[in-house]
Specification:
Layout lengths: L1 H17 L17 H4 L3 E7 L5 E2 L2 E2 L3 E10 L4 H13 L5 E4 L2 H6 E3 L7 H21 L4 E6 L1 H5 L2 H9 L4 H16 L7 E6 L8
Parallel strand pairs: 4-6, 5-7, 7-8
Antiparallel strand pairs: 1-4, 2-3
Helix pairs in contact: 1-3, 5-8
Amino acid sequence: MREIENEEIERIVEKQKKLGLNTVTDGELRRAWWHFDFLENLDGVEGFDTDTGLQFHQQQTKAHAIKVTGKLDFSNHPMIEDFKFLKSIAGPWAKMTIPSPSMLRLRGSIEQGIYDNPEEFTHDLANAYKKAIQAFYNAGCRYLQLDDTAWAFLASEEEREKMRAQGTNPDKLSALYAETINKAVEDRPDDLTITMHICRGNFRST
């Protein structure tokens, strides 16, 4: 399977180069999910099957989710090797994409007793991302994109009302998202570009 993935990634990298793109990705071809694949390989996070998937317009995703089952950290993450392969064929134009830390808050549940203190969770999540950012940098990454759909929920008054009904203050949540992201990137190397891609999310173009 890895050999097939490598061949297809080489093909799309070459196509991107021919098109004259300034940055080149692997198309996320190794991933089943754009966010879960990264998040569930953080220390302390596990993926699991659910009864239903996420509902989009006339489409539903696979029945899968993530949960925090231990203290968060970053070590031995498989996507470092994925990036190294991309770097070997794309050179200085290689761009890595990972989900923003906000996505673990949005899509991940936390098992009882793991993080009773929200500040500790914020600290550990930001610290895990700091380590991830440094690890990608050490692997040669100079352009890292954080993908984030959490902000779209906060821009929707309908979703904000749902949050309030569940006892969540959307303004405090947005401040917490921003705090976590800022802490995660505050020690980034000077020659590392970090950007954010914010959208409402989609599944099969729905």
